[in-house]
Amino acid sequence: MPDMPPNPHHDALLRLDLADAAATEAFGASLAPVLAHPAATGLVIWLSGDLGAGKTTTTRGLLRALGHTGSVKSPTYTLLEPYVVSRMSVYHFDFYRFNAPDEFLEAGLEEYFADGGICLVEWADKALPYVPQPDIDIHLSVAGTGRLAQIQALTERGRTCLSARQT
C-alpha cells in the first residue's frame, strides 16, 4: 500500500506522561494559555477517560492557573459547574449519569454552548449527538501509577488555541 500524504486537518496526537495527581494538575495549568487565547471564545474541549483518570484534576489545575481560588469539584451530580475567571465564562460539564442523550436537551444545556463561554465536557459521548463536537480532545488514561494525556486539536480554532499551550 502506498504511503498516504499527511492530512493537514488531522493533527497528530500530543502524548504526555503524568507521574501523579500533581503532574496532572500541572498539565491542566499548562492549558490556561489555550483558554486565554483571543480565539478561545466558544471553545469546546472534551475530556475523556475512565473514572479516576484525572479529568477533574486537569480542570482544577486549569481553573486555578486562570485565577480561580475556590473549590473545583466534579459536576457528576449537578451536570454543570459554572466559573467566571479572568473575565471569561468557563462551564464544566459531566454527563456520566445520563441514561439517554435526550437528557442534554431536557436539561436545556445547549444554551451554554451558544453563549461564547468555554465548555469543558466530561463523558460527552453520553450526550451525542446533541453536545457539540470538540475543538480540542483530551483523553486521559491510567498508566501504571500515573496518567497518560493525549491531546488533539480537531478544528482550526482548536489548533490556533492549542498553539498557545505552555509546555
The CATH architecture comes to 3-Layer(aba) Sandwich
Please give the oligomerization state of what you see: single chain
Judging from the principal axes of the Cα atoms, what is the shape? globular
Structural class: alpha/beta
**CATH homologous superfamily descriptor:** P-loop containing nucleotide triphosphate hydrolases
> What is the residue-averaged pLDDT?
87
Helix content: 25-40%
The total count of helices amounts to: 6
What amount of the residues lies in strands? 25-35%
Integer tally of domains: 1
Based on CA atoms alone, the radius of gyration comes out at: 16 Å
Q: What is the end-to-end distance?
A: 36 Å
Pfam families: TsaE (PF02367)
Subcellular location: Cytoplasm
InterPro entries: P-loop_NTPase (IPR027417), T6A_TsaE (IPR003442)
Family: Belongs to the TsaE family.
How would you portray this structure in words?
- With 167 residues, the chain is of the alpha/beta class.
- The protein has a single domain (14-162), classed as Rossmann fold.
- The chain is 25% helix and 26% strand.
- It has six helices and seven strands, in the order βααβαββααβββα.
- The chain has a seven-stranded mixed sheet with strand order 1-7-6-2-5-4-3.
- Strand 6 and strand 7 form a beta hairpin.
- Helix 1 (21-30) crosses helix 3.
- The longest helix is centred in the middle third of the chain and has 11 residues, at 55-65.
- The termini are far apart.
- It is found in: Cytoplasm.
- It comes from Viridibacterium curvum.
- InterPro entries: P-loop_NTPase, T6A_TsaE.
- Its main location: cytoplasm.
- Keywords: ATP-binding, Cytoplasm, Magnesium, Metal-binding, Nucleotide-binding, tRNA processing.
